[in-house]
Design brief:
- The chain has one domain: Phosphoglycerate mutase-like (Rossmann fold), CATH 3.40.50.
- 28% of the residues lie in helices and 20% in strands.
- It has a 6-stranded mixed beta sheet with strand order 3-2-4-1-5-6, sandwiched between helices.
- Strand 2, helix 2 and strand 3 form a beta-alpha-beta unit.
- Helix 1 runs parallel beside helix 2 and helix 3 packs across helix 4.
- The chain is globular and about 45 Å long.
Length: 163
């Protein structure tokens, strides 16, 4: 059984409150708008499982996508996704439940960019905020995901406003 992996860098976050810890920074209004635009382009995704970093900006991005794409399963926070290291991010992917055949991961750079470059034919300098890369995985088990099992399916780097 093939799998779908949707990798999303959280949307634009606010640095307005300099007293907030990095993990607590919310989305800027622009980040909310971009996430809504991305959701409109993605359409309905009722069968995807959204896994997100515990960072507020990642959770906010995930919850907007959950509501707008009418995802049936609750957003799940995975503490280990609060990483900026691609090896740690790959380790998280390898631990995903095999019964999940469609997965959306909301995380952080530079881990996202490096992992995408490793797994796909893309050679990005930087995955933009609210950037989206969809991969088709030719394996039934997440722990077997390698660059050899992955095909690039779709990219959205600047979500357009709907309608």
């Amino acid at each position: 059984m093939n799998k779908t992996l949707r990798l999303i860098r959280h949307a634009k976050s606010s640095w307005q409150d300099t007293q907030l810890h990095d993990i607590d920074r919310p989305l800027k209004p622009k980040g909310v708008r971009r996430t809504l635009a991305l959701a409109a382009q993605l359409g309905l995704l009722p069968l995807t499982h959204i896994f997100t970093s515990p960072a507020r900006r990642a959770q906010d991005t995930g919850h907007i996508l959950h509501a707008e794409c009418q995802v049936s399963k609750a957003v799940e926070v995975i503490p280990a996704l609060y990483t900026f290291d691609a090896t740690d991010l790959m380790d998280c992917l390898h631990l995903l439940p095999d019964e999940c055949s469609d997965v959306t991961v909301v995380g952080h750079n530079p881990a996202m960019t490096i992992l995408i470059n490793h797994l796909s034919t893309l050679k990005l300098d930087n995955l933009v905020t609210a950037g989206y890369v969809e991969l088709s995985i030719q394996t039934a088990q997440w722990h077997k995901v390698t660059a050899d099992t992955v095909t690039l399916t779709r990219c959205i780097f600047r979500p357009e406003k709907a309608g």
